[in-house]
Amino acid sequence: IRVMGSTGSGKTTFINLASGSELRTGSGLESCTNEVQTSLPFKVGGKQVVVLDTPGFDDTTMTDTDVLKIISAYLVAMYEQGTKLAGIIYMHRISDVRMSGTSKRNFRIFRELCGESTLSNVLIVTNMWGNVDPRIGEERERELATNDKLFRPVLEKGARLLRHDNTEASAHAVLRNLINNQAATLAIQHEIVEERKDLAHTAAGAELTRLLKEQVERYDEEVRKLRGELELATHAKDEARKELQEEMERKREEIERIQRDVGRMATDFMAEKTRLEDRIAEMEAENRR
């Protein structure tokens, strides 16, 4: 079972509660998951379960292309080893006043990773109910379930919306909704393994590329505005001009980084996949000793 969600949404805490593992957790909105982590095996409803913890697409220590590369390489390596997922959990903080643009972007890429045919294996799990008035939480939950721009489209196609109250019993109750599922092949696995697509040409890769190009366009516009402000500030204090120049340079560097990341997506994925395969081979060799 794989768990995804924004940085700070409680993914790792949920897994540790459910499994008794001690996976690294971050504090606040700072990420501590910069690779796929696996829980200790544990039993739910008489079945052995392993849960995968994945970084979010708004990770504080990695770019979105790095996150997609890491998650995709792990999922593809699993698939090629003959391991399929019983389900996918998407964690969402009910304490958030609204679903931010970053969260919406995160969820759009999540949808493309999964594909439409696997949505019956998807649970959207709201947590952090203790941080919000119950009535307000219920109103937010209702909006998430009924708004066409939020979770309604996936719920109509088979995904389910559940609550988690930060207890082991609650975590196990969530997992019981997945353990008897028929194992699913995710869209990203089928596209890369069966259709031989490179990462950039998968649905998830194409969606991320589109979102990053939109970001570049916004930064280009900001650079144009800063250049205009700089020209108007000809007679301003040196300190003010320096701040404008530094901000403009930061935006230019970010544009170059995004364009570089998009261009390297496919080759970086293959390098990460090779690294994972080598690691799996080493672990298997150690187990045979």
How many whole angstroms does the radius of gyration measure? 21 Å
What percent strand?
Answer: 5-15%
Please give the largest β-sheet: 6 strands, mixed
Number of strands: 8
DSSP helix count?
A: 9
CATH topology of the largest domain: Rossmann fold
Helix content: 40-55%
CATH architecture assignment name of the largest domain? 3-Layer(aba) Sandwich
Low-confidence stretches: 27-33
Task: Note the run of SSEs as H and E.
Answer: EHEEEEHEHEHHEHHHH
Q: End-to-end span in angstroms?
A: 29 Å
Structural class: alpha/beta
Q: Could you name the CATH homologous superfamily of the largest domain?
A: P-loop containing nucleotide triphosphate hydrolases
The first-level CATH class of the largest domain is given as Alpha Beta
| Outline | globular
Q: Which sequence of strands runs across the widest sheet?
A: 2-5-1-6-7-8
Assembly type: single chain
> How many separate structural domains?
2
Average of per-residue pLDDT values: 86
Region (Disordered): 237-259
Protein name: G domain-containing protein
Pfam families: MMR_HSR1
GO molecular function: GTP binding
Descriptive overview:
This protein is of the alpha/beta class and 289 residues long. The protein folds into two domains: 2-194, Rossmann fold (3-Layer(aba) Sandwich); 199-288. 54% of the residues lie in helices and 10% in strands. It contains nine helices and eight strands. The chain has a six-stranded mixed β-sheet with strand order 2-5-1-6-7-8, sandwiched between helices. It has a two-stranded antiparallel ribbon with strand order 3-4. Helix 1 crosses helix 6, helix 2 packs parallel to helix 9 and helix 3 (101-114) packs antiparallel against helix 8. It is globular. Residues 27-33 have low confidence and may be disordered.
